[in-house]
Structure formats: structure tokens, C-alpha cells
Amino acid sequence: MHSALKADAALPAPKTGHSFVRDLPYGAGERNKLDLYIPAGVSNPPLVLFIHGGSWFRGDKVDVLKYERLDRLLALGFAVASMNYTYSQQAIWPAQLVDLETAVGFLASRAGDYGYDTARFTVWGQSSGAHMALWAGVISARGTIPEVRALVGWFPPANLYQLWHDREADEVPRGNENAELPTPESRLLGCDAQANRAAAEAASPDVAAAALEVGQVFPPTLLVHGTADPAVSPLQSARVRDVLAGRGTEVDLIEVPGGRHGGEGFDDTVEPCLKFLVAQARA
After folding, report:
1. What is the pLDDT of residues 7-38, one digit of tens each?
2. What average pLDDT does this structure show over 141-150?
């Protein structure tokens, strides 16, 4: 058992511990594994799926431990699944989308075994994981996966064609000047994202969200972005906010003044993300 850290005083009192299952295989791929955390003393807890960042070619599911996210989610009575997914050097898009669909389907099928509530299912992604979290909203709206009640996206690359242009257009220094070539989005696509706009936009969740039909409901969304992010321009979150708001989706954007691509300043955004998930899980 693990002693959970004390939650913020403005939030419900913490629980006492959790059970943990490591490296559950949700599919046949090498990285198709997830870790599952179940809070102690909570009947039928809501489930949060965490998706790590890393430019689609690095990172790991253990990143859920950063910013005390895992401890605080468990303290609030959430079950947490944290997934790995296929790196772009192993397979290009849409392999990662297939992983997402497979992982969600696996979690839905195992709810009875582990006792969490997939009717109160939410997603939290960071960076490239936030790109996938937004895709979870799209495929939930399409009915491809069980309903996503809400999602949190930290500095999401939401439009892969515009990523380069946004770094040129914003006021953040050291963006494209320091960009590795091929760019992460080009590595994900298996082609130059700037020279292949159709391919880039086909992998862009903001484009897919804008194309949803009337009656296809995108889940309530909370975005978090640093105003000085040199890797994923803050214009990316502003654009997806506008797309979702234009559809009538409940959406908010927390801007971290001077915040870069994670790191300093983001600890203070964890509490509003938790409050958002608690409110949506109870809705």
C-alpha cells in the first residue's frame, strides 16, 4: 500500500492508499502496456487515463508521477491508468491512435475486474500525450470509444501543419531556430508536415473536432499552456480553444505567465485541473 499525499485543503480529504498493477498488456505491441492504480476504500471510483508526452518518440507512463498528479488523483478517489504507446520510430500515425482506441477498449472491458467506473471516464494528456487526449475527445464524440466525460490537455500540439507556422508567428524566442529536423510531427507522420498539409491536418485533432457533425458532442476540456513555450506555441491551445468554443463545447484555457514546455509554474495549475475533473466526474 502507498500513503497518498495530502490533497489541497480546498478539495475533499485524502484517502489512505492504493493498489497497483504494473505493465498490464492492453494490446499486442511492444509498448502496449499500462499501469493501473486503484484507490483504497473507494467503491466504483471514476477513472482517469493519463497519456505521457515526449514528442511521440520518447517518454514513459511513469510521468504521471510528476507534479504529484498521481498522488493527488488517488487522494481524491480516482482510479488512474497511465499508458505507454507506440513510438513514432516504431510505427507512424495512426498507430498511436489505434493504441489509444485499444487501450480505452481494454479499460472498458476490465472495469468489472478492477472495480472502476468507466461511465465517469476522463483523460489527462501532456504535450504529445495531450495531442492524443484531444483525439480521445474526437473519437468519443464519433462514438468510436466509450464516452469521455472530460479531458485535460497540457500544452497540446493540436494542429500539426500549423506547429511550425505558429512558432514563427508567436512572440516566443528560440522556437524554430532550435527545432530538430525532421521535426517531431514530421517523424510522427513519416513525411514532411510542411510539405504534406493534408497528411498533417488528418492527424490534427483540432481539424477533426471542427469537422464533427451536429450532435457529436466533444467533451468539456481544460487546456493549460505556458505563454513562453518554445516547443509547442501557445497559439496551438488558443486555436483549439476557439475551435471548441465555436462548437459550443465547455472549454477553458489556463495560461501560465512565462511558462515554458512544462517545468516551473505548472505546479500551481494542478489544483484547478483536479477541481475540473472532480466537477466533471460528479456531473
Report:
1. 333 444 344 578 999 999 999 999 999 999 99
2. 97
E strands present in the chain: 18-25, 33-39, 46-51, 79-83, 117-126, 150-154, 221-226, 251-256
Q: How many residues does the chain have?
A: 283
- The pLDDT value recorded for residue 3 is 26
Report the CATH number at residue 43: 3.40.50.1820
- Grid cell 513519416 in the structure block, residue: 190
Range of the domain at 228: 18-282
Query: Position of cell 495531450?
Result: 130
Give, rounded to a whole angstrom, the gap between the first and last alpha carbons of the chain: 30
Question: Would residue 243 count as lying in a domain?
Answer: yes
Grid cell digits, residue 140: 468519443
Asked if 279 and 250 touch (Cβ cutoff 8 Å), the reply is no
- SS3 label, residue 13: coil
Closest CA to 83 of 117, 106, 66: 106
Q: How far is CA 161 from CA 12, 185, 206, in A?
A: 42, 8, 11
- Mean pLDDT, to the nearest integer, of 177-182? 73
Position 167 in a domain: yes
The answer to whether residue 1 is domain-embedded is no
Report which of 209, 27, 33 is spatially closest to residue 101, judged by C-alpha positions: 27
Which residues, 6+ apart, have CB-to-CB distance to 255 below 8 Å?
225, 226, 227, 234
Total tally of structural domains belonging to the chain: 1
**Residue 171: what pLDDT?**
84
Contact 40, 1 (CB under 8 A): yes
Residue 137's pLDDT band (cuts 50, 70, 90): very high
Write the DSSP symbol of residue 61: G
Residue 138 in domain: yes
Share of the chain above pLDDT 70, in %: 92
Q: Which amino acid, residue 6?
A: K
Closest CA to 223 of 235, 214, 231, 213: 235
